[in-house]
């Protein structure tokens, strides 16, 4: 459950109930989504966890196994869902998702059209962004994928904010009933230029379109098509770089005992000359920061364009 109450405002149900979706967090790259069920257990390398111990606890709780191991029980936000959902297709990740939502200017109440739905990673964040009064109409021509996405939206609690349609958007375009109603349109399709004319018809005056493509050749072709009806056409590549920041000792010219050095770490600039002297003279701990090796590289290009006013 994404903890959205469509009748009110975004809200968090504070306590875990029987049947709630919970994100079991071991560490940032080891999480999974589990439905809490009074009679079930979770078994992992830390031991056996009884779900009955989870029910009634607030989200965010640390819970213990029979062997004293622990995990955290997190509320299922769209950001966490993106990290645990089952990949039926390539998906968008949070760096691209957050950029898309900002640049498409999506706010509560917006009507958004999307194709393809894929694994519903972006759709889930779109749903929360338009809640409680907006709606996302998402289309995929793959029936099974559309059905699985619907099931996921039920599971995550956003189904009242999302309608999944089965349709070949490149071939048929978006349904006429949305003509002139969409605040924004998002395309993640292999040949987006085929869907751009229809997307243009769906947008309100001044509405914005975004197309995600992994290859620059797709971008070039889309931009060519966009030029006839759109303005302010801009393409971005969002590159996310994580940093590891921790304390370590640094002896002049000797490297660092506590920190294994892949690339040279940056030493934190000290506030005063006095404290700099202390650090340089005594090799006391300093805060080291350096880019992580596992940073995510190219995912795709995001092309944005605004419908020309006639
Ligand atoms: C890469 S996935 C989209 C992933 C999605 N953005 C996410 O974050 O989970 C692309 C989807 O487009 C769908 N697709 C491809 N061609 C299509 C078409 N002509 N009409 C509708 N959907 C199409 C595919 O079935 C696939 O599910």
Automatic annotation (TrEMBL):
It is found in: Nucleus. S-adenosyl-L-methionine binds at residues 119-122, 140, 168, 188. Keywords: Methyltransferase, Nucleus, S-adenosyl-L-methionine, Transferase, tRNA processing. Residues 253-284 are annotated as: Disordered. PROSITE patterns: SAM_TRM61. GO terms for biological process: tRNA methylation. InterPro entries: SAM-dependent_MTases_sf, TRM61_C, tRNA_MeTrfase_Gcd14. Residues 69-306 form the tRNA (adenine(58)-N(1))-methyltransferase catalytic subunit TRM61 C-terminal domain. One of its GO terms (molecular function) is tRNA (adenine(58)-N1)-methyltransferase activity. The keyword Acetylation does not apply. It catalyses: adenosine(58) in tRNA + S-adenosyl-L-methionine = N(1)-methyladenosine(58) in tRNA + S-adenosyl-L-homocysteine + H(+). Its EC number is 2.1.1.220. Belongs to the class I-like SAM-binding methyltransferase superfamily. TRM61 family. This is tRNA (adenine(58)-N(1))-methyltransferase.
């Amino acid at each position: 459950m994404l903890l959205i109450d469509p009748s009110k405002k975004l809200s968090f149900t504070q306590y875990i109930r029987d049947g709630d979706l919970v994100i079991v967090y071991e560490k940032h790259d080891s999480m999974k989504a589990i439905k809490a069920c009074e009679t079930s257990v979770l078994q992992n390398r830390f031991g056996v966890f009884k779900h009955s111990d989870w029910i009634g606890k607030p989200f965010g709780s640390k819970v213990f196994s029979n062997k004293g191991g622990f995990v955290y029980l997190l509320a299922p936000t769209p950001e966490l869902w993106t990290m645990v959902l089952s990949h039926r297709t390539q998906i968008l990740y949070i760096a691209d998702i957050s950029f898309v939502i900002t640049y498409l200017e999506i706010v509560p109440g917006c009507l958004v059209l999307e194709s393809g739905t894929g694994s519903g990673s972006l759709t889930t964040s779109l749903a929360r962004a338009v809640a409680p009064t907006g709606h996302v109409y998402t289309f995929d021509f793959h029936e099974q994928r559309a059905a699985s996405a619907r099931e996921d939206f039920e599971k995550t609690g956003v189904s009242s904010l999302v309608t999944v349609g089965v349709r070949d958007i490149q071939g048929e375009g978006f349904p006429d009933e949305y003509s002139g109603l969409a605040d924004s349109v998002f395309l993640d399709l292999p040949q987006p230029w085929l869907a751009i004319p229809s997307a243009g018809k769906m947008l309100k005056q001044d509405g914005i379109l975004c197309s995600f493509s992994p290859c620059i050749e797709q971008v070039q072709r889309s931009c060519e098509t966009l030029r006839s009806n759109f303005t302010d056409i801009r393409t971005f590549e969002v590159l996310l770089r994580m940093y590891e920041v921790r304390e370590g000792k640094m002896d002049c010219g000797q490297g660092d005992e506590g920190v294994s050095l892949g690339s040279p770490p940056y030493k934190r600039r000290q506030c005063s000359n006095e404290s700099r002297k202390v650090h340089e003279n005594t090799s006391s701990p300093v805060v080291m920061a350096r880019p992580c090796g596992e940073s995510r590289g190219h995912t795709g290009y995001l092309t944005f364009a605004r419908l020309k006013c006639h």
